[in-house]
């Protein structure tokens, strides 16, 4: 017999040896189990079959909430939709929603599967993501991030410095492109978002006075001893920051005066032979005397020398330094300084490119198999004499390598 449900009525329903139904009418019922469990039910017919849908359990779902669920189920039934099948579809959709990666999930996958294997500067990607992206979006589903979200975040970062806004945009763009490539997302929200700051091509070259001030000021700079030597090796050889920091002792032959950079650690993928001038040799000799652990010239202070220091180490080191009389510069500006000095010393662009290991993509460059080892040594020895003249103030014929370090 149908009864008008009240909270008191439902509360007073007692379990019996067998489960039973208490009905209110129109298919709204409460099922009572022998265990005492009470559950709200909707009993209905669909395409000629009697069905029973569980709406929820009492008292977790109260009477008022159960009535709303019952009315919603009746509405679906009136539209020709099976409420039980709809509930199952909703459950599957919720499960799929839970499996959709958050931005935190995507960022972790991006760093592990893209940045670390493919970029020497992967730690900078990780830093950008943890500093600005994850705090803003971390708990949100990656698929829910919009172009507007990206623009607002980049604008916020750009207020601290436009170039950093550019870097954040580039990192986020690559991360979402990675998600599209792997099928995690159908489309990237970063499409058509423009960089907030215009970047101009850098032309910073240190003057002779700045070179001497920079070299001498390192004696008291708040930088570790071996990072000071890394900065000096950059200036002595003109090689890329990443190639200097990932150099291994097995690649250096002080006796013959050569440093061989394997193709696997060169940006352009071509093995590069670097002649060691007297300044570079003195720096490497001093570095060798430090007996640092591991195979690297510049091992990371973490992990007992298992890995080299990161690409960003020198950038952070320079930012911590203040060289009176020297305008701010980056490690790459040291490389540009060497290239410029070689031109001033009379070496043509071809020799400059060979020293700096730039790829010659001309037809002549493709067919020219000459090593240019002799020309590279002449160029770096000439730069060595000029560098010592700058550092000591003496004429080239009277100078000796000046590489004293604290």
Task: Explain how this protein is built.
The protein is of the alpha+beta class and 406 residues long. The chain folds into three domains: 7-98, 2-Layer Sandwich (Double Stranded RNA Binding Domain), CATH 3.30.160.390; 103-181; 208-398, Intergrase catalytic core (hpI Integrase, Chain A). Helix content is 49%, strand content 10%. The chain has 16 helices and seven strands. It has helices at residues 7-12, 63-78, 83-99, 103-118, 122-137, 147-158, 162-181, 208-217, 225-237, 241-245, 278-289, 312-320, 331-344, 349-356, 363-367, 373-392, and strands spanning 20-25, 28-32, 38-46, 49-58, 252-253, 258-261, 272-275. A hairpin with a 5-residue loop joins strand 2 (28-32) and strand 3. It is elongated, with a radius of gyration of 35 Å. It starts with 6 loop residues before the first helix and ends in a 14-residue tail after the last helix.
Q: Output mean pLDDT.
A: 87
| The CATH top-level class label of the largest domain | Mainly Alpha
Question: Major beta sheet, specifics?
Answer: 4 strands, antiparallel
**Count of domains:** 3
Query: What is the second-level CATH architecture of the largest domain?
Result: Orthogonal Bundle
* Euclidean distance between termini CA atoms: 97 Å
Order of helices and strands: HEEEEHHHHHHHHHEEEHHHHHH
Strand order of the largest sheet: 1-2-3-4
**Poorly predicted tracts of residues:** 398-406
Beta strand count: 7
Number of helices: 16
Q: Roughly what fraction of the amino acids lie in strands?
A: 5-15%
Tell me the CATH superfamily of the largest domain.
Intergrase catalytic core
Q: Taking Cα atoms only, what radius of gyration do you get, to the nearest Å?
A: 35 Å
């Amino acid at each position: 017999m149908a009864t008008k449900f009240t909270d008191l009525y439902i509360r007073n329903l007692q379990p019996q040896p067998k489960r039973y139904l208490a009905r209110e009418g129109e298919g709204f019922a409460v099922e009572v189990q022998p265990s005492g469990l009470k559950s709200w039910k909707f009993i209905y017919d669909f395409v000629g079959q009697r069905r029973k849908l569980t709406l929820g359990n009492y008292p977790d779902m109260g009477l008022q909430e159960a009535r709303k669920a019952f009315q919603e189920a009746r509405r679906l039934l009136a539209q020709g939709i099976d409420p039980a099948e709809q509930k199952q579809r909703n459950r599957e959709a919720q499960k799929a929603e839970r499996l959709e990666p958050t931005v935190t999930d995507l960022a972790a996958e991006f760093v592990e599967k893209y940045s670390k294997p493919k970029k020497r500067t992967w730690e900078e990607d990780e830093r950008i993501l943890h500093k600005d992206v994850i705090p803003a979006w971390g708990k949100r589903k990656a698929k829910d991030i919009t172009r507007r979200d990206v623009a607002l975040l980049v604008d916020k970062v750009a207020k601290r410095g436009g170039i950093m806004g550019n870097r954040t945009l580039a990192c986020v763009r690559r991360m979402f492109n990675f998600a599209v490539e792997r099928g995690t997302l159908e489309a990237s929200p970063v499409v058509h978002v423009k960089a907030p700051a215009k970047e101009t091509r850098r032309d910073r070259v240190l003057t002779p006075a700045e070179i001497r001030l920079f070299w001498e000021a390192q004696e008291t700079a708040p930088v570790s001893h071996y990072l000071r030597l890394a900065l000096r090796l950059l200036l002595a050889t003109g090689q890329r920051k990443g190639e200097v920091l990932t150099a291994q002792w097995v690649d250096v032959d002080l006796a013959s005066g050569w440093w061989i950079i394997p193709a696997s650690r060169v940006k352009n993928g071509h093995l590069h032979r670097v002649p060691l001038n007297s300044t570079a040799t003195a720096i490497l000799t001093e570095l060798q005397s430090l007996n640092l652990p591991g195979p690297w010239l510049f091992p990371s202070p973490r992990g007992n020398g298992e890995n080299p220091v990161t690409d960003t180490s020198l950038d952070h080191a320079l930012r911590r330094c203040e060289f009176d009389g020297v305008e701010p510069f980056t490690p790459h500006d040291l490389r540009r300084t060497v290239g410029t000095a070689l031109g001033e010393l009379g070496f043509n662009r071809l020799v400059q490119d060979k020293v700096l290991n730039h790829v010659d993509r001309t037809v002549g460059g493709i067919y020219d198999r000459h090593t240019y080892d002799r020309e590279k040594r002449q160029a770096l020895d000439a730069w060595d004499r000029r560098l010592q003249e700058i550092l000591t103030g003496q004429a080239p014929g009277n100078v000796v390598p000046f590489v004293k370090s604290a």
